[in-house]
Amino acid sequence: MAGYTGQFLRINLSAGRIDKEELDLELAKKFIGGRGLASYFLTQEIEPEVDPLSQANKIIFATGPLTGSRAPTAGRYMVVTKSPLSGTIASSNSGGFWGAELKRAGYDFIIVEGKSDKPCYLNINDGTVEIRDAARCWGKLVSETTNLLLEEVGDPKARVLTIGPAGEKQALLASVMNDLY
Q: Angle at Cα 105 formed by Cα 101 and Cα 109, nearest 5°?
């Protein structure tokens, strides 16, 4: 179906496992867009009473069928999880280049589950997906982390999603930032 790559990533941080999965295109038709698909997967995969700050919660980064196209505002993507502030499904919409680059890499969305024992980040580059050590980024500001990761991957045009110290400390209003915005 046009607008979808038909693949997504499932990242299990507890197991250090990366799985590439097929997207059921009938689901994509039924729950159109990043918010719809991510909300569907979240409600199917977590229990309603799950503690939002526990490793049983998931965070989903999802593009829609227009992401990466020439349509106006087609660089947008969604971040969906169970909110630690409200205890309900929360979705946030973000712009920039990250969503389009995820789609160009061949994925419609990423489901992140579990919890790593140490700081880590996900590197997606030229068909390779890796979980890498991020200890040197821990405690840094978003701008510092972004610059460290750009330096590490050796590509100034790479796209970076990151949290800062508020996210590390599990502040209820912490956010995910992309490309310094």
A: 80
